[in-house]
Write a structure and sequence with these properties.
Number of helices: 0
Strand content: over 45%
Mean pLDDT: 93
Structural class: mainly beta
Oligomer: single chain
Low-confidence stretches: none
Order of helices and strands: EEEEEEEEEEEEEEEEEE
Distance between the termini: 48 Å
Shape: globular
Length: about 220
């Protein structure tokens, strides 16, 4: 069940449909109306294609996923796209601009004993939003997506102690993805790491936990 809420002071009509999606290396998501190879969308039944909600109203929208008999252990992934009607928005000093909003809800369904199997295959230093960050290359040889978490810490070459957490982006089956280790901080300001730095701690995903130690140098 997906609960929809209309926070507007006007009634709203929303259109709802399923879509396949791909997760690109740069972190962007591309949606596809046409069925992609291996799509599980034929298993998905949605309650209706349009929902009308009064101002301040709520609606519990139902959908159902029914894998065929004898489906092997795997992960069904699809998106529910919720789109509003196009409206004209006045721009300062310019003509009205037609805008339509869309929200995508990503759904993962584990079939059988589907599970991720993550491993560190390499490391590097990458630039993310102007900061040079230690980064892991993580391979998923399992049959379901995984998200890396953990408790990591290190002391850089200047003697400053830093704590890190992995980016929690999904790592899809068969994929190798760069996972930056972000610095935990009290203030939202850039921190320049004095390399080299050795980072130690624990990496976790699903029900797994492994000790980690890695030296990062330019």
């Amino acid at each position: 069940v997906l609960e929809l809420s209309n926070a507007d002071a006007r009634a709203a009509k929303w259109r709802i449909r399923t879509a396949d999606w791909t997760f690109e290396k740069n972190g962007n998501v591309a949606f596809h109306d046409e069925l992609q190879a291996g799509s599980c969308r034929p298993w998905v039944a949605i309650e209706k294609r349009e929902v009308m909600l009064p101002a301040g109203g709520k609606y519990r929208y139902r959908f159902e996923v029914t894998p065929p008999p004898n489906t092997p252990d795997s992960e069904c992934r699809f998106a529910l796209l919720i789109e509003g009607d196009e409206m004209n928005v006045q721009t300062p000093g310019g003509p009205p601009v037609p805008i339509a909003g869309r929200i995508a809800v990503i759904v993962y369904v584990a079939v059988g004993k589907a599970a991720p199997a993550l491993e560190v295959t390499g490391s590097e230093i990458t630039t993310v939003s102007g900061e040079t960050l230690p980064t892991l290359r993580i391979r998923n040889s399992g049959n379901a997506h995984g998200r890396l978490s953990g408790f990591l810490a290190g002391t850089d070459a200047s003697g400053r102690k830093l704590e890190f957490t992995p980016t929690t982006l999904p790592i899809l089956p068969g994929e190798t993805r760069a996972v930056p280790l972000h610095i935990q901080r009290d203030k939202d300001e850039p921190i320049k790491i004095a390399y080299p730095i050795t980072i130690r701690g624990t990496l976790e995903w699903a029900d797994k936990s492994v000790a980690f130690e890695q030296r990062f140098a330019p």
